[in-house]
């Protein structure tokens, strides 16, 4: 093979790997889910989720947040990421008080990675709430980061627990 053919083969191989990653990332999303039963009503859990300005007081993952929890609005979140932090600005897709909060965030380069994150609140017969937190990841980087993404489940459990603790604190502080 001459040098031009070698370069063509190398470029074609890279294009195939990148295209394959995009297709694989789109067809095989990674989901991380944690479900926790809380001793707080859906309205009380919603109050915790909707108060983004207080996230720094209780949330072990999103250590800073601002923005209005309303469909179409953007939030400005700073999360713990490894030994540092990462800022992202997801768009709120669903803001149904007492029922569901869902947002979608993505990398600056479209198609690399996108996460749709939801908190679904289901009432329990005893007045509590079943909180299901889930994130679905798609994109070209997802096949390469599956292990890291799945390792987020304990973090989701910790956030769910912290939401329940925050709701209990707010219950106790009411007259």
UniProtKB/TrEMBL annotation:
The chain crosses the membrane at residues 6-27. InterPro entries: Polyketide_cyclase/dehydratase, START-like_dom_sf. The keyword Nucleotidyltransferase does not apply. The keyword Membrane applies. CDD domains: SRPBCC_4. Keywords: Membrane, Transmembrane, Transmembrane helix. It holds the Pfam family Polyketide_cyc2. PANTHER family: CHROMOSOME 9, WHOLE GENOME SHOTGUN SEQUENCE (PTHR36166), SRPBCC DOMAIN-CONTAINING PROTEIN (PTHR36166:SF1). This is SRPBCC domain-containing protein. The lineage of its organism: Bacteria, Bacillati, Actinomycetota, Actinomycetes, Micrococcales.
